[in-house]
Amino acid sequence: MIMKKFFKWLIISLLVIVGLYFIIALFAPSTYKVERSKTMSASPEIIYSQISHLKNWELWTEWARKDTTTVNTYEGNDGEVGSIMRWKSKNMGEGNVEITELVPNEKIAYKLTFIDWNSVSTGAFTIAPAGDSSKVSWSNEGEIAFMMRTMFLFMGGMDAMMGPDFEKGLANLDVLTSTMKPEPQEPVLPDYVISTITLPAAHYIGIRFDTLISAVDSTLFSTAYGELAVYAAENKIEMVGAPVCITYSWDQVNGRCEIVAAFPVPLTTKAPKGKIESIKTIPAEALWLDYYGEYMNIWMAHMAMDNYMKANSLKSKMSIEEYVTDPHTVPSYDSVLTKLYYVLEK
Q1: 279 in a domain, yes or no?
Q2: Is 16 domain-assigned?
C-alpha cells in the first residue's frame, strides 16, 4: 500500500514538473540576440582581414582556446562568400560556420550551425571607424527550440551563455591586431638586375606552414631547419645546396602566407612521411635576381619582381629564396647573398 502511494505521488510530481516545464516554455523567449562591442586600436582594414578569413578565427576566438580537442576543416576560398569552416570536438560536438556576406572593411555576416543541437543561427561583425580607432560589434541571433526554452531561461539565457565568450574573443582580437601594420607605401627600389633562366628539376624535404605573416620570423625558420637537419642526419640524407624557403602564397592584405622551409636533396631521395614532406619540381622557366643585404629588406627584391611581372604580363606560381651565404661567415651584411627565383606560370 505504501509503495502504491509512493509511486502515485511520484508520478503526480513528475507530471507537475513536466507541466511546469511546458508552461514556462510557453512564456519564455522564443528568440535571442547576443551582442557585444569593443573599440580597438587597429584600422578597419586590418581587423577585417582577420575576421573575414575563417582560418584566422583559430587565433582569437575563445572557443578555439578553450577546447583543444577541436579539429577544423575548411571549404571554399577563405575570405570569400560561401567559404566554410567545419569543426568536430569532444566538448562542442559538430558544426560549421559559413560566410554569407562581406562588405570590405565594414561587415562580415555568417550562418552558424550546431549539428548536435539541431541549431541554426545568424551572426555578424560590423566595423566602424572611431577616430584613430575602430569600433567592432559582434552579434548572433536565432530561434530557441520550444523544448530548450525553459532550460535556457534557468541558465540565464543565451546572453549569459555566449556573451562572455564574445567579450573575450573581441579582447583577443584587439591584442592580435594591435601590432599589425598596414601595407607600406610604394618605396623607391634599388635597380635590381632581373634575368630569365630555366631552373633544373629539384627535390626538397621541408616543413610547411600555413600561418600569419606576422608569425614568420627567424625562430620559425631556425626551428624548422633544426628539425630537418636532425631528420637528414638520422636518415643519412645529403644536402645538395643551400637551405631555401618556398613560398606558395603571400597575402599582404589579409596577413596570411603558405611557405615551406626546405633543404635541397638528391633527386633519388626517398620521400619522407609525416610532418616532413617531399617536394619535387620539374624544369621550369623562372625570373632570377641576386639580393645582397640584410634579410629584413628582401621585401624590396620581391616588390621589384612583382613590378617586373606586372610590366611584362607574367604570373608566378611560387617563389624560392635560396640562402647562399651564412651571415656569420662574412664581415658585413653587404656580402650576404640570397638568390631569389620566381617560377613562372606557362
Answers
A1: yes
A2: no
**Residue (of 184, 169, 251) closest to 216 by Cα position:** 251
pLDDT digits (tens, 9 = 90+) for 102-117: 999 999 999 999 887 7
pTM above 0.85, yes or no: no
Q: Do residues 213 and 172 share a domain? A: no
Q: 156 and 62, same structural domain?
A: yes
Q: What is the DSSP annotation of 101-164?
A: EEETTTEEEEEEEETTTTEEEEEEEEEEEETTEEEEEEEEEEE--HHHHHHHHHTTHHHHHHHH
155 or 236: which carries more pLDDT confidence? Answer: 236
Site of grid cell 635560396: 322
| pLDDT at position 65 over 90 | no
pLDDT confidence of residue 20: 53
70 shares its domain with 155: yes
- For residue 30, the model assigns a pLDDT of 54
Q: Is 183 a domain residue?
A: no
∠ at Cα 173 (171, 178), nearest 5°? 100
Give the separation between CA 302 and CA 187, rounded to whole angstroms. Answer: 12
Q: Is residue 217 part of a domain?
A: yes
User: Which CA distances in Å does 13 have to 18, 19, 25, 339?
Assistant: 9, 10, 18, 81
Domain that holds residue 31: 26-178
For the stretch 152-192, pLDDT in tens is: 554 545 676 778 899 999 999 999 999 887 665 567 788 99
**Number of residues written out for the chain:** 346
Cα→Cα distances 262→124, 133, 179, 293, 325, Å:
40, 40, 29, 21, 16
Tell me the three cell numbers of residue 33. 540576440
Residue 54 DSSP class: G
* 322 vs 241: CA distance, rounded Å: 9
